[in-house]
What does this fold into?
Amino acid sequence: MKFEELFDEDSSTPEIVTTFQALLELLKHQLILVEQEEMFSAITIKKNPNRSEDEDIGEIDEYN
It folds into this structure.
């Protein structure tokens, strides 16, 4: 799915930023793959087929 498909027209900036942070956390734990063909082009998000949801990912970082 494309990053922008996660939001509707009424999404606020904090919602978008929080979602982006969550995606970075999933990426850090290699649960997702992201692709971007060139700068400022659409960001595509895919589930990582080589990673199982059952695998232990340890503790999730807290943002304060």
